[in-house]
Amino acid sequence: MLGAIIGDIVGSVYEWNNIKTKEFPLFSDKGFFTDDTVMTIAVAEALLNGGTDDDFIDSMKKFGKLYPKSGYGGHFRKWVHSDDREPYNSWGNGSAMRVSPCGWFAGSLEEAEAFAERSAAVTHNHPEGVKGAKATAAAIYLALTLTDRREDLAEYQELTARMEGLKNEQLMAVMKERSRIPDPKKAKIKGYIEEKYGYDLSRTLDGIRPGYKFNESCQETVPEAIIAFLESTDFEDAIRNAISLGGDSDTLAAITGSIAEAYYQIPSDITTRAFHKLDDTLSSVINAWLDRGKHDGAIIRKEDWRTKEFSQPRNIKANFRISENNYARIRHGLRPEAMEDKWFAYYDNGRLYLHRSWTGAKIYEAEIYRGDQYYEISEITVERDAEIYKCTSDDEDVRSFNFLIGRGLLGLNVDIPVDTGSDDGVLRGWSSFGNMIM
Length: 438
Hints:
By secondary structure, the protein is of the alpha+beta class.
């Protein structure tokens, strides 16, 4: 569901100020979550509570009242604040923008579509409203479960091998040739949606963009959002594709983002920026979702990087309090994207692990437990083998751990734990923390 939330936040500033380009700041200071995010969280909670019609109705009404000024449509707003529990025959795109948890929660394609239909029909029981939700959930489930990969094709591997040693124009030419190889996984998603739901997904973004205008219907939002995913090269590109169409930007990007999340890994910096826009109440549902063993496309796992175990561990006392929102972000981990990103972090079974990215050496490990009002860390395990890690000061390690959490995982303005007032200090800081000190 995080992909839908990110798409919503990024698109929020363009809903009434459409753009027709992919060149724009991905996150704006003016960006905010809208009804797309609130109802996505509501659907997630409803599934955790059992996924019945009553669960969806209760959760949507609950969150609609908690966040009354999030940009709901008139009919939905009236339904939320009434005692009425009957649907109102909507074909609006709201059924599709909130459906992403159904694709992640389901154990089969049929179950994903069944949950999607139920989540839609409590309000959007028009055939087009149900269809849009089911098509989106199906695309998400297929993106998660299909194993076909373009990278496994012999032609793709041959072109990749040819790139070795090439430079500049020759390299770009081979990369362009490689990019034209059809992606079998996307082709299967496209084929299934077209055959079962009748959407025309053979159009192109360049063909759609010039004449596309604001539209709140499923029938003129969902296929366009899926095409934005099909033409994408990574998660961020998918979001940019959707917003570049104009139209109902936040909802388009929420639908596209929900599918892209299941297909690509969401970069850690994008995850961080999104959590800055959420609050503890919304984040508590994300934590409950993860507590139930459910995942999303931003979770970093141990197997995503090479790791080593402690050589000479030492336990030191600490005292950290962590909010619901920050805990949810920490649980998503940190994956390095460049040489200058010197740390890898992942969360598993109540414990946070921090490794140096170049060597895989584990430097810190800490249990995070639920306190009376906050999540807490009271002890850190640190590497004390001088051949692996040179620091010998417990106090400095507590400061460094705090910096890695605050600056590295949470993107906060936390003081650098080393003195960077001299050239030696700058070099030491860079060696220890890389891009985090910038």
